Structure formats: structure tokens, C-alpha cells
Amino acid sequence: MKEKDKKDKPKPGRKQWVIVQYVGNFIGCLIVTPMLAMVVFKFFSDGTGDLVSVKMFMLVFISCFIIIQCHGALVNMRRDFLRGRWVLGDDEASIEPDSVINPWRRIGPLALPAAIVTAAAIYFAVPFLGSEPFNRLKIDIMAFVPLYVVSAILIGITFPRDQVSFVTALSKPKPERPEPFFRYFFFEHIGPLILLQVAINLGIALKQFPFEAAKTGGLIPATYVAGDFGIVLGIIFFFMWVTSEGQVRPDVHLGRVPENAFVRSKFGDMNAVLVVILAIILSFGVMAVVGGVMAAVFYIAGLEAISVTSACVLKTIAAIVGCVVGCRAGIWWGSRRETALIRAESSDSKEAS
User: Fold this and answer.
1) What is the arithmetic mean of pLDDT over 84-92?
2) Which of 81, 186, 264, 339 has its CA 20 to 30 A from that of 291?
3) Could you give the CA distance from residue 323 to residue 320 in angstroms, rounded to a whole number?
């Protein structure tokens, strides 16, 4: 009886589900802001920030995460439609659909300039918002408010047309051939994500490695750099897997990527929590293996210490490799799972008829 009531219950409309994205965006901003500030100003500082460090943090953090938050919310909303969590009402005819399906193209024309302008404005406003040393609470507030406000405005502006366009695209016949994989992989996954992750991790490196080098008189122990390489690659592998896994699922329905021919339908859809747990387990494995390999390479090469510049370069390489491997794993996993779900639903429909 309860299952029947649940099925008969009216589903939220497009506008109601945008509000859900506002809430999710608020929670996301509330998590990522203190987390990144803690990494930069607690792990690689004395717990406070000087004027230059805070200004640079605002510039990199706000410009990158406005884009990241909008992209994540857009991908989540498309996937939520596939799961039947919201519907497009009959009153949506006032919004003209367009052909923009790439989520980066959807948010980019507005999010990129908005992110740069917002970050630059906060960069120059920092001296008027407090005096050094800045405590972490003040840093969190200065970063959180513009990040949430601007990303929420962008969600309200860009999402309505995307909802109509995405649902319209799903109703059209699939293309005879999927897009060339390399083009899809580069322009819709690793291209934008590498730029964002390199900016974030290079920004952290410029704070982290001079701080560590000051402890040892100018050079950084090779074992520290090896461990950092493994950690960065493993963490980015995790986030890129989750990001691409979510983005590719709607694209399977649109026929933009091929259905996986070697999937077992019995696996069906997997709960997002289980996907995250699996990605975390694999990420720890990546950290351990890659960190150990790098330490062995340094040992064989006879390197005991590394310069700040070399450490920054290696951290950037770790970010790039993590993006490539994580995105590829996410696309493979997401297309595989979504194919299983499509086949299971098709089989159920045939049996019902």
C-alpha cells in the first residue's frame, strides 16, 4: 500500500527541483569552503592568513569553485530527471529549448566571466574586510558568501532553459553514431577539469612547498614530495571519477556515448553512496601505490631533497594524471551502470506488456 502511495504521489515540477539544487549548492559550499581554507591556512600556515595569502586564496578558490558548483548542480539535476525525481510540466512552453547539451557550454558563457569578476572583486576588497592576521572563520565567511550567492544566481539563470532543452533532447531519436570518443572525453571531461584542478593545486602548491621548505632550509624531503604526489593523484582520481560518472549517465540516454557492450544487467543501478565508497577505497589504493612508486623512483635516482619549483611541477603533473585517469574510470563505470539500468528497464517493460 505504501509503495502504491509513493508511486501515485505527484512528482515535483521543474521549478520545485531548482529549489532542491539551491539547498544542495548551499550544503556543498558550506563543506568545501572551510575544508579548503583548513588545508591552506592550517596545514601550511600557523592557522591564520596574511594579506597576500588570503587575497590569492580568494582569487583562486572563488573563480574555480563558482564554476565547479554550477557544473555539479547541473549534472545532478539531469541525473535526477532520469530517476524520475522531477517532471517537466505542460506550462513550460514559454521557454524555448536549444541544442546545448554539453554542461560546460551551458554554464560557461555566464559562469566563467561571473567567476573571474567575483574573484577579482573579492581580491581587491580583502584589505577593506579586515586586517591581518585573518583568522579562519573570517576567511571562511569572505569565501563562502560570494561563492554561494553568485553560484545560486547562475543556477537560477541557466538551469530553466537547460531543463527544457535536456528533456526535449531525450524525446528525440538518438544519433546513428555517438560522438568521437576522444572529442567527447577531451572537451566535456578532462579539458575543463584539468584547467580547474591545475589552478587549484598549483595555488595550494605555491603556499604549501615554500612553507615546508622553510622548515629544512630551502629544499623539501623527497619522501614528502612522493607522498604528496600519491595523495594528490588519489584525491583527484576520486573527485574526477564521481564527477564524470554522474555526467556520462545522461549522455548514454542521449546516445552521445556508446552503451557498454559487456555489462551484466543484474547489477542494475547502484546507489550513489556505494559508488562513492567504492571510489574512496580505490583512491586510497591509488595513493599508496603511486606514493610508493614515486618514493622508489626518488631512491633509485639518489634524490633525497627536491626544490620548491620541482615539487610544484610534480604536484601539477599529479593533478593532470589524476584528472585523466579519474575521468576515464568515471566514464567507463557510469556508462556501464547506466547501460545496465536501461536494459533492466527495457526488460521489465517487455515483461509487463
Assistant:
1) 79
2) 186
3) 5
Q: What is the C-alpha to C-alpha distance for residues 66 and 150, in angstroms, rounded to an integer?
A: 7
For residue 255, is it left (φ>0), alpha (ψ between -120 and 50) or beta? left
- Greatest alpha-carbon span in the chain: 75
CA–CA separation, 282 and 162 (whole Å):
33
Per-residue model confidence (pLDDT) at position 66: 97
Please say whether the beta carbons of 339 and 259 come within 8 A: yes
Indicate the pTM of the whole model. Answer: 0.90
Query: What pairs with residue 305 in β-bridges?
Result: 221
Domain boundaries, the chain: 1-172, 175-353
Calculated CA dihedral for residues 183, 188, 194, 200, nearest 10 degrees: 170
Grid cell for residue 318: 599529479
Give how far Cα 280 sits from Cα of 82, 190, 237, 240, 333, Å: 25, 20, 9, 12, 14
Q: In whole angstroms, what is the distance from residue 17 CA to residue 77 CA?
A: 8
Tens-digit pLDDT profile for residues 215-239: 888 899 999 999 999 999 999 999 9
